[in-house]
């Protein structure tokens, strides 16, 4: 049972062993595996052209729980291009960003039939396919206080950006997108725009309007830069937030809260078109004229080392509430901590721990109960990780995830999952 987890750790050890021969390539620029290309990378950046290539993999195995033990591997390559139009065309405050992603692999939840509500490998999802993930123009005005983006955008590039230190999907990325079927997170993008204004007080206001078209999920549309037919509505979000400082210690923190409205029709989880339980009648589901919800995040650093905020502990709380009538999972809540630079000899490493609750909506639970199944409640995930910056361009992050009541069903075995994330900046 432990053999597969040992293989994951061996994979990380292999990456470390490779660094001796690869580091020579980066002698002139240790932030990238391939270095500065004999000055070409720096010259391109000075001219306004930034190229990037990244690799991220996440391997997982169920150490305990489930009917059988399995291992799963998923990865992603990112190829990015940034154009500074001020340098290239003397277009003040303007830039273009292009990003193509390629995902591959499988996920442990399905492979071992573990029944969890959220994936253990956040990098898995939306098909093994190459996609246009970003293609937008950004314009900054009014001394950079006003920031406008227009083009093909993933929802969580700016909106509801919770970060992704953890590997379990309950704690990573644009959390509302895991509850709302028409909220398309990275790597899927759609046409839209967002406007942000930063006030002198430290607060900001941000609004976005995005096309809702399920055809963007199709592998056949993954490299379509245009807009396929099939738009069913729009997704509109307003977000407000602020940077904060904690008392006399002046330690950094932040807060944001957002509201969304989706105009696409949504199916009721319980009722049919006549207002009766669909599980009994078999009639089509009741349709709702869109859905709404809210989310917030607060995080605050509470300790420092030798007066420097670069090392120390931060606490955070994440919350998402979706429409209970139309969402299978209607609420996410998590509370956790991160510690930057846990050891003096490892100032660039990080340690994190989080516990959460992933709740099945009352409508979905009632529907399953009426259908004769066990009514699900809440799933309780937790995760402990250690991220080691082995080299400036290589991060290794082993983690342990424990899932209590996977699927929100008490008869399911609790799960202990071992994961390993490998991130390389070429």
TrEMBL record:
Q: Does the keyword Signal apply?
A: yes
The Gene Ontology terms for molecular function here are: porin activity
Domain of life assignment = Bacteria
Q: What span is annotated as the signal peptide, if there is one? A: 1-26
Pfam families registered for this protein in UniProt:
OprB
GO BP terms: namely:
carbohydrate transport
Identify one Gene Ontology CC term for this UniProt entry. Answer: membrane
Q: Which UniProt keywords apply?
A: Signal
Family that this chain belongs to: Belongs to the OprB family.
Q: What is this protein called?
A: Carbohydrate porin
Q: Which organism is it from?
A: Solimonas marina
């Amino acid at each position: 049972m432990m053999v597969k987890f040992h293989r994951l750790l061996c994979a990380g050890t292999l990456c470390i062993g490779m660094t001796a021969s690869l580091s020579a390539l980066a002698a002139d620029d240790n932030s990238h595996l391939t270095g500065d290309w004999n000055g070409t990378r720096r010259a391109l950046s000075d001219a306004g052209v930034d190229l990037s290539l990244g690799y991220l993999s996440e391997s997982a195995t169920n150490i305990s729980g489930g009917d059988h033990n399995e291992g799963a591997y998923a990865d992603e390559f990112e190829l990015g291009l940034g154009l500074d139009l001020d340098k290239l065309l003397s277009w003040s405050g303007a830039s273009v960003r292009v990003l193509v992603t390629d995902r591959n692999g499988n996920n442990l939840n399905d492979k071992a039939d573990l029944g969890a509500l959220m994936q253990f490998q956040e990098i898995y999802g939306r098909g093994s396919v190459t996609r246009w993930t970003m293609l937008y123009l950004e314009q900054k005005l009014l001394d950079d206080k006003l920031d406008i983006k227009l083009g093909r955008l993933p929802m969580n590039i700016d909106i509801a950006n919770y970060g992704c230190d953890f590997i379990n999907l309950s704690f990573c990325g644009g959390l509302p997108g895991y509850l709302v079927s028409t909220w398309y997170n990275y790597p899927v993008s759609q046409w839209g725009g967002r406007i942000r204004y930063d006030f002198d007080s430290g607060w900001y206001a941000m609004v976005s309007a995005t096309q809702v078209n399920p055809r963007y999920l199709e592998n056949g549309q993954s490299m379509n830069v245009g807009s396929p037919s099939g738009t069913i509505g729009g997704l509109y979000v307003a977000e407000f937030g602020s940077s904060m400082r904690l008392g006399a210690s002046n330690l950094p923190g932040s807060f944001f809260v957002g509201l969304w409205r989706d105009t696409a029709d949504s199916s009721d989880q319980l009722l049919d078109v006549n207002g009766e339980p669909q599980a009994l009648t078999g009639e089509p589901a009741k349709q709702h004229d869109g859905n709404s919800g809210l989310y917030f995040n607060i995080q605050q650093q509470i300790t420092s080392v030798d007066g420097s905020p670069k090392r120390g502990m931060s606490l955070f709380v994440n919350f998402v509430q979706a429409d209970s009538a139309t969402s299978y999972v209607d609420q996410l809540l998590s509370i956790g901590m991160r510690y930057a630079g846990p050891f003096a000899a490892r100032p660039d490493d990080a340690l994190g721990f989080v516990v959460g609750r992933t709740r099945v909506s009352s409508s979905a639970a009632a529907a399953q109960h009426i259908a004769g199944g066990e009514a699900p409640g809440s799933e309780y995930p937790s995760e402990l990780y250690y991220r080691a910056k082995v080299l400036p361009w290589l991060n290794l992050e082993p983690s342990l995830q424990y899932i209590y009541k996977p699927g929100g069903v008490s008869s399911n075995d609790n799960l202990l999952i071992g994961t390993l994330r490998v991130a390389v900046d070429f």
